[in-house]
Every structure is written in structure tokens, then in C-alpha cells.
Amino acid sequence: MKFGGTSMGSAERIRVSAGIAAAERANRPVAIVVSAMSKVTDLLLETLRQAENGNRAAVDANVAGLRERHETTARELLTSPDAVVAGIGVLVGEFERIAQGMLLLGDRPPRSVDEAVAIGERLTALIIAAYLTETGTPAEAVNAAQVVVTDSVFGNATPIMSATRVRAAEVILPLLAAGKIAVMTGFNGATADGKPTTLGRGGSDFSASILASAVDAEELWIWTDVDGIMTADPRLVKDARVLDEVTYAEAAELAYNGAKVLHPRTLAPLVEKKIPVWSKNSFNLAAPGTHIVPALRDDEPRGARAVTSMANVALVSVEPASAAISGTRVMARALDALDIVNAEVLTLSSSSYRQSFCFLVRKDELPGVLKGLEEALALEMEHGYVKPFEIDENVGLLAVVGEGMRGVPGLAGRVFTAVSKEGISIIAIAQGSSELTINLVVSRDGLERAVKAIHAECGLGRSAES
After folding, report:
1. Alpha carbon distance 378, 136 (integer Å)
2. Torsion angle, CA of 453/459/461/462, rounded to 10 degrees?
3. Which class in CATH covers the domain with range 306-465?
4. Which of 23, 32, 168, 237 has the least CB density, counted as fewest CB within 10 Å?
């Protein structure tokens, strides 16, 4: 089971989450993965930024706030909190030591950032493990740096599953065999030689799937603050409904294209072993949630299942200025540059005649992307072989997702017509060969209207279901 930041957000939410885990432990072995308390990761990152900028007063105030929040939570939960409060002091002291080092250096080394931000998860693991134990369910906190072995890409590491399985067998399985709940930190890991890493923001989901695969779990349950995976964002579409069942591929595409229920990389470790996943709401235990499975049943309808969107994106267009240079070569160099700066390409579209292409990235990655492109194509730009890059930040990404859309004649045409009826211009289109997803880049001011129009056109709402 994985519990997110809101499920760990207060003493009361930790009490509920612990109750869920303990109840299931009465039936079978349970391991849990926990996020930091809500907003704590943001606080830690902001503190490190202030340290880099030399703002000692802000660092001291944030460290004090970090300590107070966790000590208060421990005292609310535990009848004998002294040992946990002491442990909190040690962990907060580790964070403070790293922040003080950044104050002195005026710099934020990526390796040190990864070590520091994992303190949030280590604090919640310590607290919930102590609460479980005190209330009659033995549990032990485990730093994922002892279990999850990764490469050395600090800030966005990738697990090395073979080594992780060995570590899980050494660290996690003995705890389960002893009748304990293993409480592992989410979001973090370490290289084979022990350098701390993190898996990217929201990586606790990913941590849980890594652990589930490594210990051959029967199921993975992701506990969040929503009832499951929905046909659209309910803040945009009032009649959006929870999907009873989706496939790995559908869930991954929805996560990749903006749905916030899962981390985009969550499902990859589960595919080979076909471990099913439940997305559930720890604030609404009566809700059945969404079951994520390897493939749809034969009687499931084919076609669009959900529509999702992403607003904080930017479209980058690259165009050769001369036929003297191969557009394919320019594209290859550009994509290599994006890989080097570790940027995520959300969608890619190209023109065969002009050999121009455009791609969508997250807005916060844009400065690094432009720097990488300028370095990779410096010579071509200096000689005028490549035109200046065009950047459009007034765009949004919309994705229509569903297994088997290939078998629904006219679906793409209906999607485009629904958008055009709203007077919204489509700037770029991309669709994979599997026809699992249709991606549209539209003007930002029309994004929400486009989502509503497509949701209605495809009959995805509650009224259509009934």
C-alpha cells in the first residue's frame, strides 16, 4: 500500500492510514510506502533554495517549522512519544546540516538535494511505524536508500530492478516474515555505492510499484484523496465519473498526459508480473476505487475512456532554414539534447515537406530545454542552417485515451469536430500507431472548453452511463 501526502497530512490522517494497513495485515502480509506530510517536500525544497541564496533567517525559520509540525503530530498520536521525538530531532538535524552546508557554499549540489528532500518521507515513516507498533501492529521504518538501487541521475533516478530485488529480499521480506508491517519511504533510493537519489516529484507511487515488483506482491493499493481514476478532471467537467477498471496502458497514458492520480512511471515495474493495482481514496473508504489491470475484459466497450489535459506546458518549434541540412539530422540532434537535459517530451509532431517539427515540454523545463538545444545546434544556427526556435507558452495539451480506439470509425473526426465547434484552434496533433491516445495541442484559453466538448461528444459522463 502507498499512502500519499494528504493521507499522511495530519495526526488524524495518519491514524486512518495506519488503521487501513493494520486491518489488511490481519489477513495477509503488508508493506506500506509513505510520502512526506502534505506540503513538506515543498518546504524542504524552498529551504534549500533559501540556503543557496544565503538567507539564513528563512532557513532557521523553516527548520523550526519542520521540527514543530512533526513533533506535534507525534505527540498527538503517541502516548509515549519521547523516543520518536528524539528520532525526529536526529532527522531534522540531518536536514539542517545539509542546508547549513549550502548556506556556506552558496550552491545546491544535486546529490545533496536528493539526500535532504528524502528527510520528509523518513519523518513520516518513523511516526506511522511507531504508531502502528504502539497500537498493536508491529511495524518498522525502512529508508528506501537501503532497498531501492538506482542509477546516478540525481533528481530523476531510474531503478535497477535486479539489484533492488536482492536488497528487498534482504531487508523487506524478513520483516514481513516476522509479522511486521514494513514501512518504506517513498520517492528516494540510492546508487549501488550508497549515493542518495530521488525518483522525481510524485515518485512515491513509483517507489511502491518498484517494491511491489521486487517482493512479488499480490496487489498494489495506491491510497490518495480522490475516489479513483476519472473520465476527466471533475473540477473542469461536472459529470465526470470514476472508471471501474482501466488497463495499465490507459492509466499510464492518463498519468503521462496530466491526470494526477498516479506517477507516470508507476506501472512499468508491474507489467511483466501482471500485478494488479487499486487506486483508492483514504478519505472515502466506501468508494470502490479503480482497478488497474493488464488488459480489458472482452465485454468491455472499446473507444475513448477518458480525456485529460495539462496547462503548464510550452511548444517549441524547430525548422531547418536550408535544404543543405537534413531535417532528420536536426531532429535527432534536438532529441539527443532533450535527453541530455533530462526533459520529458510530452508530444511530438513533424512536417515532411518543410522538415520542421515541434514538441511539447513542461513549462518549468523550458529554460533547460532551450539551453540544451542552443548548445546542440550552435553550429547550425551560427551558419543560418536552422531558424531561431519558436516558443509558444500560450498552449495546453489535451489527450483522449482509450484502448481500441482503432476499431471505432470516425472517432478522431468527432474529436476534431467537437473542438472546432467551440471555435478553438488546434495547433498540433499527434497519435501513436496503437491509437491508444490522440494528443491535441490547443490554445491555452480554449483548453478547458475543449475538454468539456470532447467529454460530452464521446459520451463519457455520468448521464451517458445511466
Report:
1. 64
2. 150
3. alpha beta
4. 23
DSSP 302: P
Calpha distance 77→37 (Å, rounded): 14
Phi/psi of residue 34, each to 5°? -120, 145
Mean pLDDT check: name the lowest of 260-274, 284-298, 326-340. Answer: 260-274
Taking alpha carbons only, the member of 32, 220, 40, 13 closest to residue 118 is: 40
SS3 of the chain: helix, strand, coil, percent, to 5: 45, 20, 35
Q: Taking the domains of the chain in order of start, what are their residue ranges?
A: 2-225, 306-465
| pTM as predicted | 0.84
pLDDT tops 60 at residue 464: no
Do residues 221 and 262 touch, judged by C-beta distance below 8 A? no
The DSSP H or E segment spanning 24 is helix 11-25
Q: Torsion over CA of 219, 222, 223 and 227, rounded to 10 degrees?
A: -100
> What are the DSSP calls for 234-286, one per residue?
TTT-TT--B-SEEEHHHHHHHHHTT--SS-TTTTGGGTTTT--EEEEETT-TT
- Pair 380, 386: CB distance under 8 Å: yes
Q: How far apart are CA 418 and CA 451, in angstroms?
A: 10
Euclidean distance between the first and the last CA atom of the chain, given in angstroms as a whole number: 32
Q: What is the mean predicted confidence (pLDDT) over 226-237?
A: 91
pLDDT in tens, 137-192: 999 999 999 999 999 999 989 999 999 999 999 999 999 999 999 999 999 999 99
* CATH C-level class of 2-225: alpha beta
Give the Cα separation of 350 and 168 in Å (integer). Answer: 44
Q: Which three cell numbers stand for residue 233?
A: 478532471
Q: Decide whether 2-225 matches 306-465 in CATH topology.
A: no
In angstroms, the CA 145 to CA 3 distance is: 18
Say if CB 223 and CB 3 are below 8 A apart. Answer: yes
